[in-house]
Amino acid sequence: MSDAIPILEVRDLEGGYGSSRVLRDISFTVAPGEILVIVGRSGCGKSTLLRYMVGLSRPWAGSVLFEGSDIWSDSGRVLSSARRRWGVLFQSGALLASLTLLENVMLPLSEFRDLSPAVLRLAAFRKLDMVGLADFAASYPLEISGGMQKRAGLARALALDPDMVFFDEPSAGLDPVTSAELDQLVCSINRTLGTTMVIVTHELPSILAISDRVIMLDSSSQGIIAQGRVEQLKEHSDLRVHAFFHRLPQGQANDVA
């Protein structure tokens, strides 16, 4: 993957809220077909970075390039085009409670595809079937479990057969078994479809299960303090990295080191 032309590149990015900087000098690439996981302790800017990457907020400085073109170019055409080739699974699932699961998945299809109602329904049903929810197509979000809501959100994120899917804390609020099942589903979709995935999470079991490569952010440095495969980061010399991947309080990590 390191030799592949990046599908996404973040270059010299800076950002924050109001007058408070959260991120600075953020640069990395994402290879086609890769599962890149962005990690770090709470408050380090993971979700903020994701918002910049998917075009929900404009960074203070720097670039986000999709296939070599800056999504924040003045024309806005790059971002508009990119969004048709991306899927996003938000932490809450962001399903519309007044619509069935099938209707939720049909939404992006009806907005961006000129298809007959019958074809729209069939395409949406196939995505629900892909995530194991075909039998719940007529159910409403509040009638199913939290784990099923996440899978329905994933089906909607996959509706347009995207080249990339972004995830914001996909395992948040799930029990360990349901979280593991979601991890398996994510890996299966990546292997089967070759979909590039960028995942923000602090859940260590998920990081170990799904990542090809990991980037770690830190609030004190406001940037990337480590990146590589999990096996490399578990043996990293930085005590903050060591503590995170071994689930150690910082003081205990100092003692171990």
Structure report:
- By secondary structure, the chain is α/β, with parallel strands linked by helices.
- It folds into two domains: 1-85 and 164-226, 3-Layer(aba) Sandwich (Rossmann fold); 90-161, no CATH class.
- It contains ten helices and ten strands.
- Strands 6-7-8-3-9-10 form a six-stranded mixed beta sheet.
- The mean pLDDT is 91.
SSE arrangement:
Blueprint: E1 8-17, E2 20-30, E3 35-39, H1 46-53, E4 61-66, E5 69-70, H2 77-83, E6 86-89, H3 101-112, H4 117-130, H5 146-157, E7 164-168, H6 176-193, E8 196-200, H7 204-210, E9 213-218, E10 223-228, H8 230-234, H9 239-245, H10 250-256
Parallel strand pairs: 3-8, 3-9, 6-7, 7-8
Antiparallel strand pairs: 1-2, 1-4, 4-5, 9-10
List descriptors.
Rossmann fold; 2 domains; alpha/beta; 4-stranded antiparallel sheet; 10 helices; 6-stranded mixed sheet; 257 residues
Secondary structure: helix percent: 25-40%
Count of helical regions: 10
**Which CATH class of the largest domain?**
Alpha Beta
CATH architecture of the largest domain: 3-Layer(aba) Sandwich
Strand content: 15-25%
Which outline best applies? globular
Strand order of the largest sheet: 6-7-8-3-9-10
Element string (H = helix, E = strand)? EEEHEEHEHHHEHEHEEHHH
Number of strands: 10
Into how many domains do the coordinates divide?
Answer: 2
Main sheet properties: 6 strands, mixed
At the fold tier of CATH, the topology name of the largest domain is Rossmann fold
Q: What is the average of the pLDDT values? A: 91
CATH superfamily of the largest domain: P-loop containing nucleotide triphosphate hydrolases
- Low-confidence region ranges: none
Please state the CA-atom Rg, rounded to the nearest Å: 19 Å
Structural class: alpha/beta
Q: Termini, distance in Å?
A: 32 Å
